[in-house]
Design goal:
184 residues, rod-shaped, mainly alpha
Length: 184
C-alpha cells in the first residue's frame, strides 16, 4: 500500500470519528431537516475529502474543507428538490380530490397522474362520453348513434360533463395558481 493511501486512510478514519456527527447535524439544518439526505451528503463530503487526499492534497483545516464541501452539496440537493417541487403538485395539496379518497397518499403526482385521478371520479357513462368526445373527437351525431340517444341529449350530457370536470379541476387549478407550480 502506498504511503499516500495509508496517510489518506488514517486521516479519513480520524475525520470520520471526529466530524461525521457534526457534518450530519450541519447538513440536517441546511436541508430543511431531511435526515436521510443529510447523512448521505455528510458521507459524500468525506468521500470528496478522501479522494483529494489520495491525489496528494493536504488540508490545514479539514473541518473547514468538509463544512464547505457539505454546504455546496446541500445547496445542490436543495436546488434539485426545488426543481422537482416546481414540476409536481402533491396529492395532499389537491385538497378536494384528496379529501374524497379514504386513504389519500401524500405522494407527489405529475400532471398525467392527476388527470387519471380526476378521470377516476367520473361515472362510467361520463367517462365513456369523455372518451368519445374529447379523446376520439367524435361528433355529436356519431356519439348519439353510438349511445343510442339524440344529438340534443348528447349536447346536454356533454354540457353536464364539462360542469362535473370543472368542479373536479377547480381546486387543483387554484392550488396551481397559488403555488406557482409548473405542469409538465
Amino acid at each position: 500500500m502506498s504511503q499516500v493511501k495509508q496517510k489518506a486512510d488514517t486521516l479519513l478514519t480520524e475525520a470520520y470519528e471526529k466530524y461525521n456527527t457534526l457534518l450530519i447535524k450541519f447538513c440536517y439544518t441546511k436541508l430543511l431537516e431531511d435526515k436521510t439526505v443529510a447523512d448521505d451528503i455528510a458521507q459524500e463530503a468525506l468521500l470528496v475529502y478522501y479522494k483529494r487526499m489520495l491525489k496528494g492534497e493536504e488540508f490545514e483545516k479539514p473541518l473547514a474543507f468538509l463544512y464547505q464541501t457539505a454546504a455546496n452539496l446541500c445547496k445542490n440537493a436543495n436546488k434539485k428538490a426545488t426543481k422537482h417541487a416546481m414540476r409536481t403538485v402533491s396529492l395532499e395539496d389537491a385538497t378536494d380530490v384528496a379529501a374524497q379518497e379514504e386513504n389519500s397518499r401524500a405522494s407527489e403526482l405529475d400532471y398525467d397522474e392527476i388527470k387519471e385521478r380526476l378521470l377516476e371520479k367520473l361515472t362510467e357513462e361520463e367517462l365513456r362520453l369523455y372518451q368519445l368526445k374529447y379523446v376520439e373527437d367524435k361528433s355529436l351525431k356519431e356519439i348519439a348513434e353510438m349511445m343510442d340517444i339524440t344529438p340534443n341529449a348528447v349536447a346536454k350530457r356533454t354540457q353536464r360533463l364539462r360542469s362535473v370536470i370543472k368542479e373536479l379541476v377547480e381546486p387543483t387549478l387554484s392550488i396551481y395558481e397559488r403555488g406557482g407550480y409548473i405542469w409538465t
